[in-house]
Amino acid sequence: MLTSRKVNLIGACLGFVTVGFGAFSNPMINPESHTCPNAQTLGGQICRGQVPKEMPEEAWGQFGAVAYQAAAEVMSSNNAEPQALTETQKQYLRPHFGDLVDRVKVVYNATLMEDWVAASFKINVGESNAQVYGNTIYIKKEMKEQDFEQLVLLSHELIHCQQHEQLGSLGNFGYHYFKEYKKAGEIYRNNKLEVEAFEFEKEFAQGLAKKIPGSYRPR
């Protein structure tokens, strides 16, 4: 699950970004005291907080490539240093994820975002328990090493870490995540990357229930 404290990601995206409709620079500047690009361009509309709802999937993807990297920096600066998975957690997760469990790190008691907000570029998944940026997982609650629910949550987030490694970079993951979100009609659970994570989560929970009897609660 990907979300934190509400933050305007366009404001965090410094520098020039090309989104298929031209470039814009730090587009959340105050239009009353600074000059925005032409209102007919994408950059001009973003500067004024007026991105059309009919923005194509490609534009969402291009923005997501930058927004995801910017959000990763915000999350890193707003939270404690991450820690490695424990040996007990690795024991449950390694059969499914191999040595990925040795590369992933986790921040517990993390400050999470509510939304990814950038004019009409907004992903709202409601109250989030965790989110992932690259190979760092942020979990809202304290660490509970053998807790069934937390292990299932980790399995979901590890799928996103796996997707990130397969796609090769934070930017590529952000591109595909935002594009797939738009393609899914802006419905979080229908995003292809989330469908994969939720399907595995269910499968993992069923298997884990055999190892921790009485703990499985279907979602």
How would you describe this structure to a colleague?
The chain has 219 residues and is α/β, with parallel strands linked by helices. Helices cover 46% and strands 13% of the residues. It contains eight helices and nine strands. The protein has a four-stranded mixed sheet with strand order 4-5-9-8, with helices on both faces. It has a three-stranded mixed sheet with strand order 1-6-7. Strands 2-3 form a two-stranded antiparallel ribbon. Strand 8 (130-133) and strand 9 (136-139) form a beta hairpin. It is globular. This is DUF4157 domain-containing protein.
Low-confidence stretches: 3-34
Mean pLDDT: 78
Secondary structure tally, helices:
8
- What gyration radius follows from the Cα positions, in whole Å? 18 Å
Distance between the termini: 15 Å
The total strand number stands at 9
Order of helices and strands: EHEEHHEHHEEEEEHHH
Helix content: 40-55%
Shape: globular
Structural class: alpha/beta
Main β-sheet, spatial strand arrangement: 4-5-9-8
Largest sheet: 4 strands, mixed
- Strand residues, percent: 5-15%
Protein name: DUF4157 domain-containing protein
Pick out its properties.
four-stranded mixed beta sheet, alpha/beta, 219 residues, three-stranded mixed beta sheet, globular, single chain, 46% helix
